[in-house]
């Protein structure tokens, strides 16, 4: 199973920005990369996803504020988060899979998560 390591989380004021990174220890070219936020009820909401062909998808709540990208040569996925809001707070996970699945459990591998806190 792949090993994924997220980084880039932290505490930021409303309106601020963070850039999350997800380093994967396998060949990334044919994999989709999903980004999920864990809710207080321990469910996983999909925030964004980028397919192996670089098609991107976003939750309505983050459209226009977040941007997903990837660098296959570096085996890394990114989630640029701008104009952050308190409701963006949560643990963010990256996951890899064949497609941009809606469900977290359909992805084949995921990281340990990184905490994002948006608060004044």
Name the features.
mainly beta, 11 strands, 48% strand, seven-stranded mixed beta sheet, four-stranded antiparallel beta sheet
Question: What about the largest sheet?
Answer: 7 strands, mixed
Number of strand segments:
11
Q: State the end-to-end distance.
A: 39 Å
Give the count of helical stretches: 0
Describe it.
0% of the residues lie in helices and 48% in strands. The model has no long low-confidence stretch (mean pLDDT 96). The protein has no helices and 11 strands.
Quick synopsis:
The protein has no helices and 11 strands.
Please give the structural blueprint.
Blueprint (H helix, E strand, L loop, with lengths): L3 E4 L2 E3 L5 E7 L7 E7 L5 E7 L5 E3 L7 E6 L4 E6 L8 E8 L11 E2 L3 E5 L2
Parallel strand pairs: 2-11
Antiparallel strand pairs: 1-3, 3-8, 4-5, 4-9, 5-6, 7-8, 9-10, 9-11
């Amino acid at each position: 199973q792949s090993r994924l390591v997220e980084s880039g989380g932290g505490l930021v004021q409303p309106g601020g920005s963070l850039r999350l990174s997800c380093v994967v220890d396998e060949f990334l070219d044919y994999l989709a990369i999903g980004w999920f936020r864990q809710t207080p009820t321990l469910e996983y909401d999909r925030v964004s996803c980028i397919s192996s062909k670089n098609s991107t998808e976003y939750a309505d709540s983050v459209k226009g504020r977040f941007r997903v990208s990837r660098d296959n040569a570096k085996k890394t996925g990114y989630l640029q988060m701008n104009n952050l809001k308190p409701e963006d707070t949560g643990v963010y996970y990256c996951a890899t899979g064949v497609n941009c699945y809606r469900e977290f459990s359909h992805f084949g591998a995921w990281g340990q998560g990184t905490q994002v806190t948006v608060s004044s």
